[in-house]
Specification:
Structural class: alpha/beta
Bound molecules: guanosine-5'-triphosphate, magnesium ion
CATH topology: Rossmann fold
Strand content: 5-15%
Number of domains: 1
Helix content: 25-40%
Order of helices and strands: EHHHEHEHHHEHEHHEH
């Protein structure tokens, strides 16, 4: 056999979540950090002149393909996304931030990467035109963490809750199955999840604690409905259960979190070594900003 090339693929952090939550806006902020920060600081003095910069972050459109950018955190994890670590000459670790489309019909991109399959990678490689890094290499990269972006303002009026929680259920269940699949041999490295409650600049937005409890309640409802479906009809027919699940076809394979529990909570995911945090922030406008999300990522790279 030929020895493996010294080339190593960078670890990646996946941005997932429903359409319109702000994934691409966040990627743009982290990529062009200094610009965007400048905009916020200058906002009051110089509103008109700075407008174009702000719009650069704000102007996104529905994503149809994954996009990847290469970013770096300092070795001690204390750097900001505004720092240019190369210029500063400080020791740093690089990683890939991968934006995925949130539209329901395009979620296979994100789910395939979470499951560690390459199902969507060939499509992605062909379709991606605007990514700043080779997407075929990013699809082989090891997923270190998942950032699930939600629109905390949309969650306030109810309609978005089932849709958002439905996608989160898929993501968490994929991660849970992935951990279960490693039984017997070596367990796969756990992948932590950050629920980024975005758009806290809007006064209608729910605070992070409410985003958390509303999502937990809805995930519990989904779990109940699904288990009832399973009991009624045997196992769901052409679900991706068989594709992702492997050998075991137990009904509790589709149960998220602590089996048989009445209420769902994110803490139950710890049973599968999956850490879930909910942190509020915003990409544009006035508010807590994106620093806490960046720090969360930096600590896990
Ligand atoms: P898809 O590509 O369809 O999956 O959506 P996305 O998650 O990439 O959403 P995108 O980044 O395109 O943002 C959707 C809209 O939300 C844009 O108009 C953004 O300007 C806006 N937006 C993003 N972040 C914030 C924020 O923190 N506050 C406010 N007020 N608007 C935001
Ligand atoms: Mg997008």
């Amino acid at each position: 056999l030929v020895a493996a090339t010294p080339y190593s693929t960078l670890p990646s952090v996946l941005l997932v979540g429903p359409s319109g939550a702000g994934k691409t806006a966040l990627l743009t902020l982290f990529e062009r950090g200094p610009l965007a920060t400048h905009t916020q600081q200058q906002h009051h003095n110089d509103e008109k002149q700075q407008q174009p910069n702000n719009t650069a972050v704000a102007l996104t459109h529905t994503s149809q393909t994954p996009a990847t950018v290469e970013l770096a955190v300092s070795d001690d994890g204390a750097s900001s996304f505004r720092d240019d670590l190369d210029a500063a000459g400080s020791a740093h670790k690089k990683f890939l931030l991968v934006d995925t489309p949130g539209h329901a019909k395009l979620r296979r991109h994100a789910l395939a990467r979470i499951q560690g399959t390459s199902a969507a990678s060939s499509t992605a490689a062909v379709a991606t035109t605007s990514s700043s890094s080779d997407s075929s290499s990013s699809s082989k990269s090891k997923v270190k963490a998942v950032v699930f972006v939600v629109d905390a303002a949309a969650l306030a009026d109810g309609d978005a809750l089932p849709e958002t929680a439905g996608y989160l259920y898929e993501v968490l269940l994929s991660l849970q199955k992935r951990m279960g699949a490693g039984k017997g041999s070596r367990a796969p490295a756990s992948v932590p999840v950050l629920v980024a409650a975005n758009k806290l600049d809007l006064f209608t937005a729910l605070p992070a604690a409410l985003v958390r409890s509303n999502l937990e309640a809805e995930l519990g409802r989904i779990r109940r409905t699904r288990s009832r479906g399973l009991l009624d009809s045997g196992v769901g027919a052409d679900d991706d259960v068989a594709a992702a699940g492997g050998a075991a076809g137990d009904e509790n394979d589709d149960w998220l979190g602590e089996y048989g529990s009445d209420k769902f909570s994110f803490k139950q995911m710890l049973e599968f070594d999956i850490e879930v945090d909910v942190i509020g922030g915003n990409v544009i406008g006035e508010g807590p900003g994106a620093d806490r999300w960046w720090r969360w990522i930096a600590e896990r790279i």
